[in-house]
Amino acid sequence: MSRKSSTGSGLMSSAGLMRYYEADKKAIHIDPKSVMVFGVVIGFAVLMLNAAYGLWP
What we know:
Blueprint: H1 12-26, H2 32-52
């Protein structure tokens, strides 16, 4: 019978996932509500600037 040797820290495929999650911890996280509010504010600002410069239909 063959014996399995335990020389490593797990499967090779799991190493890539671990690196991905470690990189995710360092990323900038923004709340989705903040993105929506920022988009609405920018949209409103564009509409107001169009109205101020006579580009409003």
